[in-house]
Amino acid sequence: MGLSSGDKVPDEKTVWSFREKLTNNQTIEKIFVLFRDVLNAKGLILNEGKMVDATFATAPIQRNTREENKQIKDGDGAALWNNKPHKKRHKDIDARWTQKGGQNYYGYKNHTKVDANPTSTPKSFFGVFLLKNGGDFILLS
């Protein structure tokens, strides 16, 4: 795709707006059907007894000012601390807060899917969680 880890990622409002447009004109369902068909054709979808788990990979809690937090939430976090490269290196502007069972977590969600078929290998991915657990989940990375 030509993307690298240093590329700017769209903020959640841009992703949400794009998803809404795809949903409203019923394009998203067609895309997911095509995506599922491609994965199925490559043998990446196994439907024999699944176990799915989501765990948290916590990140150090950031001590940002209200202004810095607003800038991060608005998608302009990459511009912060440019004059302080040592401080910028310690900041994780991709991690987010979520809640599960009344407990707050800061970091990333790790989703794992394991099929009952012993020849399959576990599928796992890390995702940046943008909304509370149980709400819509937008995968950024």
From TrEMBL:
For bias type Basic and acidic residues, the affected ranges are: 65-76
Provide the residue span(s) of the region labelled Disordered.
65-92
- In its UniProt entry, what is this protein called? Mobile element protein
For this protein's source organism, the top of the classification is: Bacteria, Pseudomonadati, Bacteroidota, Bacteroidia, Bacteroidales
